[in-house]
From TrEMBL:
Pfam families: DUF1318 (PF07027). Residues 48-57 have a biased composition (Low complexity). Residues 48-71 are annotated as: Disordered. Signal peptide: none annotated. Residues 58-71 have a biased composition (Polar residues). This is DUF1318 domain-containing protein. InterPro entries: YdbL (IPR008309).
Length: 209
């Protein structure tokens, strides 16, 4: 066993580990939620959250960010080596790209249409579908003369939303992420919606927030 930790033994072990490293690019869940929340708040015109409190030194701290005590622990040798076996290009980026001309155009369209949809969300005529689109829930809540307008607005909104989820996946060179992006938005639309709005649960049943 002692020989394993000799220089030749360590070199052999690191070589074997390098051959076994598999690089997986995982869906950046936290970054996707942050991006979705920014877009949804913009579309629904939700006020921005207050900035995080500052420390005594004036450095802004995240609510979940621990204060450093000045003590650090050394990383184990194997962890140190494995971190360097993975190419920086393969490391998962903490950000999700949501700034492209196509995405910006869609966001502007959602923002412009938001005030027109808001009264119908409040009345319960429409609600958030569990597929991250808008669904007509009860058209009887809309005056007869306005029903065709509401149907048109919902159709245009869903077209924009479908394009948005697809464009975000494309902007990050991961079209296979479109389903997960849509699932993230489906949850965030409901979380950011004002009280009283209607939404579909996972079984398609209507609930009021």
């Amino acid at each position: 066993m002692k020989a394993l930790w000799s220089v030749p033994g360590l070199a052999l072990m690191f070589a074997l580990l390098a051959g076994c490293v598999t690089i997986n690019i995982y869906f950046p869940t936290a970054a996707a939620e942050e991006a979705a929340r920014a877009i949804v708040r913009d579309a629904l015109q939700v006020p921005e959250a207050e900035p995080a409190p500052e420390s005594e030194s004036g450095v802004q701290l995240s609510p979940s960010e621990p204060r450093h005590t000045g003590t650090t622990s050394a990383a184990p040798v194997l962890v140190w080596v494995l971190e360097r076996l993975v190419s920086p290009a393969a490391a998962q980026s903490p950000d999700l790209q949501i700034e492209t001309p196509a995405i910006n155009r869609i966001r502007a369209s959602l923002r412009e249409r938001g005030p027109q949809l808001a009264p119908h969300f409040r009345s319960g005529a429409i609600g958030f579908g569990n597929n991250a689109d808008v669904v007509i829930r009860d058209l009887s809540e809309v005056p007869l003369r306005d029903r065709s307008t509401v149907q048109r607005l919902v159709s245009e909104e869903n077209s924009d939303r479908d394009s948005l989820y697809r464009e975000i996946a494309r902007a990050n060179d991961r079209p296979d992420w479109e389903r997960q992006i849509r699932e993230t938005f489906a949850r965030v639309w409901v979380e950011e919606a004002p009280s009283g709005y209607w939404y579909q649960d996972g079984n398609g049943q209507w609930q009021q927030k």
